[in-house]
Amino acid sequence: MEIAAKGKRVLITAGAGGIGRAMTDVFHKAGARIHICDVAKEAITDTLKTFPGVTATLTDVSKLTDIDQLFADVKRQLGGLDCLINNAGIAGPTGKVEDIPIEEWERCIAVDLNGMYYVTRLAMPLLKAAGGGSIVNLSSAAGRLAFPFRTPYAAAKWGVVGFTRSLSMEVGPDNIRVNAIQPGVVEGERIDRVIRAKAQAVGISFEEQKKISLERVSMHRMVSPYDIANMALYLASDVGRNITGQAISVCAGVEMLG
Length: 258
Known about the structure:
Layout: E1 9-13, H1 18-29, E2 33-38, H2 41-50, E3 55-58, H3 64-78, E4 83-86, H4 102-129, E5 133-138, H5 151-171, E6 176-183, H6 189-202, H7 206-215, H8 225-236, E7 247-250
Parallel strand pairs: 1-2, 1-4, 2-3, 4-5, 5-6, 6-7
Helix pairs in contact: 1-8, 3-4, 4-5, 6-7
């Protein structure tokens, strides 16, 4: 059976940068019809130029009015939905729990967890109308391990796993599969910002903190955004038709975060 998505109608949140951009690329090459959303207007413009046929909506997934507009566009552009990739997320603040501003905690939960719910609740009727489909939620290695100084992010990503497993049982009878991917240390500007913030919080250099982070990975290396995108395609394709309720790590063997 081929790992492909030909003709599948796919919504990818935060699909114009980082892991989301890689997912747009992989699903586009696999023949999917894709609508993306993102908060970065310039990134959307570039993505649409790069991938002909992809459509997009400027969206902050933490805002209900934005989500309403997103799904109006999805219905108009795709006519339905076969697959939802809940990729949108932010790194959130770094610091001791007593020092984290309440508004930064709330913003992290709003985007990383609440936004996933907001999108999924409107996607569900479309997936049911299609006779079933697949949802892939982005969690993190922080959704299975302790992550000191990153409590808002870890709390949200553990929440994603609970949401994924509970929803998979709820919608299994509707032929909808729900899985989570737990990336580890992913190459790119975002992880550099995270490492820099952690280094500052504990009082060491960026290079020292990066070395520490990779020493806690069995294979002592970062993973590529395309590693995550390829797993998403596998889970969304017919090859993954009997995989549901799983939180699958794509992390080169992360043993500890910190």
